[in-house]
Amino acid sequence: MLGFLDLILLLASLGVTLVFLVPLTGVLVRFRANYNPRGLQLDAEGGAQPHTGPIIQSYFGMMHRVYTIEGISGLYKGLMPTLLSTLVVTLMIVVFLDTPTPSHNKYRAPETGILGTLFYSIVMMLVALPTAIITYRSITTPLKLPYFNALKSIRILLTPTERRKPWVLYLTPGLLAAEVLHIAVVVLGLGPLRRVLLPMSDESSFGDISPVRLAIYLVIVCLSTAVLTPLEVIATRLAIQRNHASSEYNSVSQEVDGDAEEAHEFAGAGEDVIGLRNEEDPYVGLVDCAKRIIDEEGWPALYRAWWLTLLGSLGSAVTP
């Protein structure tokens, strides 16, 4: 088990990491979630009107908009769910997975072969999915959430249906499919290719790797970004799409009774940072989401902040 000083140092490093990670993640989520249709929209009477929401073309443009409208506190939306989930995972690793001799290397999934790694990754995704949904919604909501009143925040972020039946979060149309496909590409595609092309151990270095093999793998990583980025954008859109239940609408459409009573008590301050899609016209699956993003916003919307996905993949490539 870790000693007291080791634990303090671990928590301190975790805090420093979150100071930088939370704003960067929050900007990424909002940039990918921002609804920016190209064409005219129909009003309640069926007439055409131009889109009036924010038009943000870059990651750093979104960062500037968040800071301008909401200030530092806006950059730290999603801090509490991120902090709580990270603490729980860290303490579980320390308590259940640490060895008698403390190791300060990063924690890695157990080596159980390709299928074992796939199963492990999917299970971990299922465990983390509700927290991820709450985090994404807390980042994208125009409402100001209290830091130390989790129940009040939950009433804002989750619909009455989701609060009564939490498992409905797993039934969000297309979300699980997007997450599993993302895991499959990484575990079944990039993982084996990395082990074949870059057979590195903790003692080896890039000097032991063939330049040709390294170049081939880097090309593959770049090509994989073309698949992974759209899946990440789609997963973001589907995660913030709230699940409602009404006999008069689709299961993910607007819930007529019981939803507005929670939201009207908390007024958003000033201009909204991002535009959100109308909940009365939801995405009904992974393919539907991809198709409608392309039709309504253009295919570049599927590749927002693609370079961050690429940097993440390259980072995993150079890590033993």
UniProtKB/TrEMBL annotation:
<dbReference type="InterPro" id="IPR044712">
    <property type="entry name" value="SLC25A32-like"/>
</dbReference>
<dbReference type="Pfam" id="PF00153">
    <property type="entry name" value="Mito_carr"/>
</dbReference>
<keyword id="KW-0677">Repeat</keyword>
<dbReference type="InterPro" id="IPR023395">
    <property type="entry name" value="MCP_dom_sf"/>
</dbReference>
<feature type="transmembrane region" description="Helical">
    <location>
        <begin position="214"/>
        <end position="235"/>
    </location>
</feature>
<feature type="transmembrane region" description="Helical">
    <location>
        <begin position="167"/>
        <end position="194"/>
    </location>
</feature>
<protein>
    <recommendedName>
        <fullName>Mitochondrial carrier</fullName>
    </recommendedName>
</protein>
<keyword id="KW-0472">Membrane</keyword>
<feature type="transmembrane region" description="Helical">
    <location>
        <begin position="117"/>
        <end position="136"/>
    </location>
</feature>
<keyword id="KW-0812">Transmembrane</keyword>
<dbReference type="InterPro" id="IPR018108">
    <property type="entry name" value="MCP_transmembrane"/>
</dbReference>
<keyword id="KW-0813">Transport</keyword>
<feature type="repeat" description="Solcar">
    <location>
        <begin position="1"/>
        <end position="103"/>
    </location>
</feature>
<comment type="similarity">
    <text>Belongs to the mitochondrial carrier (TC 2.A.29) family.</text>
</comment>
<feature type="transmembrane region" description="Helical">
    <location>
        <begin position="6"/>
        <end position="29"/>
    </location>
</feature>
<feature type="transmembrane region" description="Helical">
    <location>
        <begin position="75"/>
        <end position="97"/>
    </location>
</feature>
<keyword id="KW-1133">Transmembrane helix</keyword>
